[in-house]
Write the structure tokens for this entry.
Amino acid sequence: MTRAGARSARADDVRARGSMASVSLSEAEKVYIVHGVQEDLRVDGRGCEDYRCVEVETDVVSNTSGSARVQLGHTDILVGVKAEMGTPKLEKPNEGYLEFFVDCSANATPEFEGRGGDELGTEIANTLYRIFSNKSSVDLQSLCISPREHCWVLYVDVLLLECGGNLFDAISIAVKAALFNTRIPRVRVLEDEEGSKDIELSDDPYDCIRLSVENVPCIVTLCKIGYRHVVDATLQEEACSLASVLVSVTSQGVVTCMRKVGKGSLDPESIFEMMETSKRVGKVLHTSLHSILHKEESLGPKRQKVGFLG
Amino acid sequence: MPGDHRRIRGPEESQPPQLYAAEEDEAPDPRDPSRLRPVYARAGLLSQAKGSAYLEAGGTKVLCAVSGPRQVEGGERGGGPAGAGGEAPAALRGRLLCDFRRAPFAGRRRRAPQGGGEERELALALQEALEPAVRLGRYPRAQLEVSALLLEDGGSALAAALTAAALALADAGIEMYDLVVGCGLSRAPGPAPTWLLDPTRLEEERAAAGLTVALMPVLNQVAGLLGSGEGGPTESWVEAVRMGLEGCQRLYPVLQQCLVRAARRRGAATPS
């Protein structure tokens, strides 16, 4: 303890991983966090597998086909989904597709000013492409209008308003809520006698198709701190951890993506333990998210919208 | 008469005829799921790079070069306690910059080298896997550049690039805790899917899920992990990671021999 005491005289600028917001932690604070986690007690009183309070609100932006806003502690994410018509990809002529774009706004932290947040934005977008890269997450065939010619393209745009740790989890929850809220107008393809096709939009503006988000996965990030791992780390906890594992699980416990993030290395046994934890935590997260989304929908169009200043 | 391009207009877009050809439904031959393809590795072949390595595994050919350490301007001001073993404090540690490039003729269809997307993601994966192994604290205010070039993609390209990059770093004389060995896996679709170690390009294209693991063999620490697809429940992924780690351990002696040979060659070339 004497060595740590001598070091705490000078603040140690410990940077959280990569290009995320940096936080200054002294040696003593770091030791405090690490020792606490070994005893399953975190700084804000949570256990190692507890999430912070999550606030989800859908349909916050009126110009989109679907939108959602998620607040996880100090992390604030806004997702908008716009459905537009496009041509299907050459290899998959019977399916529509999703395009992701992540924008790290300069409001989140001063480091994202100008082009600073682009690197983190591309990393998050690539991870989102990866977790949606399998057939069962979203029913892409329902997005097809006429094979090889027209299909729906869902442009999912993620806006990072505030960075308070655990970005990937919050973004995946927001994307799932926004896809649940998406309403795609129903179209019909009419064929003339000459064979020319015409696309007709239905007259009723409320006649839409909805996507089934039963199999949309959510990301669970587990940060290794000392000998144990924690779920939903704050910025300070992320600064104390050298390596994390990011697992994307569906509500059935099927894993669609797995990635190690960070500068450190991990023991194989701790990776196996982390995967077990992610399955457990993922199931709980999915059931509570489903129940909240259905409850919000059942409140109907007369519900009180909280919006941004509530 | 040469074609009159102004009156006879060609199509706006054209595609290669292979796209419309009937799918050659040759299923890949059944094989032992844990077989590793024979590997040819050679270090120290580029004269202009500080360290270099070439790795060939089946049809996959990767060339990797390391340059540096180069002094980087505008580093953060020093401060904070020094690390163990004479290493620089955390704010002054060196940086590792990785670049992954795919040659335009590497795959079946010509792909123009684009800046972002897949190549950036694989470069980030390379960096995250190599950082635990390199003693960056011994190179304060410096930058190491690792660039991997994929000449031909015959399956498990990222794993081969990881191994080649670690060999190149060792060949350059950069201080490392351990080598990093990479191994690729893929899971075939179907009713009774099994994980296949070191897949070929055909197996990877038909796969429902793919995984790359990077291991530091002597320390037995996992340096990198990247996988996606419909792999099934957690137990199946755990089994895949175990298979991958075992494959990395089997590959290690080949790389040791390659480095020893390179050192001997360098010693013989400079008789002083």
Q: What stands out?
A: Confidence is low (pLDDT under 50) at residues 1-19 of chain A. The domain at 27-299 of chain A is CATH 3.30.230.70 (Ribosomal Protein S5; domain 2).
